[in-house]
Structures are given as C-alpha cells and as structure tokens.
Give the backbone structure.
Amino acid sequence: QKEVEQNSGPLSVPEGAIASLNCTYSDRGSQSFFWYRQYSGKSPELIMSIYSNGDKEDGRFTAQLNKASQYVSLLIRDSQPSDSATYLCAVNKRDSSNTGKLIFGQGTTLQVKP
Amino acid sequence: GAGVSQSPRYKVAKRGRDVALRCDSISGHVTLYWYRQTLGQGSEVLTYSQSDAQRDKSGRPSGRFSAERPERSVSTLKIQRTEQGDSAVYLCASSLYPRGWQPQHFGDGTRLSIL
C-alpha cells in the first residue's frame, strides 16, 4: 500500500463544473496536508494547506480533511481550462525529528474542457 | 527573483558518472529538501538539510545521494555512480522553518537523463 494514494486520472470535467480530487493516506499520525498544482515542466505550486478536520476555503478552492477516514480532498468550483494541470496531494509524515519531509501521491491529472 | 531556482534545467550524463545539481533557495529559509519525481514513482524525498548543516540527512539507503550546503541558501545534490534509473526530474524545495506544517516552495527542477 502506498503511503499517499491518488487516482492518476485523467479527470475530465466541463468548464464551469466542480472538480473533485481525492487523496488517502496511511499514516494515522500525519498532521499536515497540502495540495500542489503542477503544470507540465513547471514546479509544484502550493494552492492549499490544511491541518485540522473540516473544510478550508480559499477562493474557488476548498480542501476537506477527515482524519478518522484518513482522507483529504480538493474541490475546485467553476473549473476553468487554466485549472488543467496535475494536482499533487502531499502529507507531512510524522517522524521523530519532525523534519517536514513530504510524502506525495502520484498526482491526479485534471482536464477542464471548454 | 524571490523564488527557488535550480540549475541546470537539463542535464545529460553517461551511466557511472557523478553529477551535481544546484539549488538556490529563498533567502532566509532554513530547510532545504531534494525530491525526485518520475512518472512511475511519483515524487519522493531524497534528502534534506537544516540550517547551516553542511551535510545532509539522507533518506536514501543506497548512499549514492548526498547534499551539501556550501552556503545557507545554496544546496548541491550529488549523485554518485549514476544509473539509468536515476533519470528523473530532481526538485529542490525550501521552507522557512524545519517543521511539518511549514509549506514548501519548489524550484522548476532539473531534468536528468542518464544514457
């Protein structure tokens, strides 16, 4: 079992729709969760971070965290073609020195069609 | 610029050679991380260094990977005796503090091809 799992997709949604990206993780002690967006050939760009159960909203993006189910998701409302990218779920795995090393999922490719 | 920059953007090397990749982090950031990104394996952490530590704390069991920190905001990832499986994009990231809740900022990566 991978430590952080995502469906690689591609996930295809029409412009204006809600895109829902999902991620599960195996380390129950994980405390910090991040969503990065990565365009081809570019660096991962942080779009959301979440640390406690519930929802966190930032513009068109909503991150949802459920630690009991070890599940974190990202919702993108009013999807735009410019949202087409690979979305990486990253989890800070707890370790004794709390170094901040991130464990990434495989990434989900999102395609928003005009 | 104020972001993380990496050089070179592309590197081709023959199998068995040593390579060095450079990362210039955001000024003031304490912790530097190196990740490897491949289509098959996704992204995995290779090594990291905190503060002014010159040597890395490598997570790679093979020991061929190491990072040095000649300056506070500069890290060099060294790969010894490269293998074809080392072909990947190598990403550098930095964070302000070495704490798990701190977001990390990434460079555009170095694409390494081993022939």
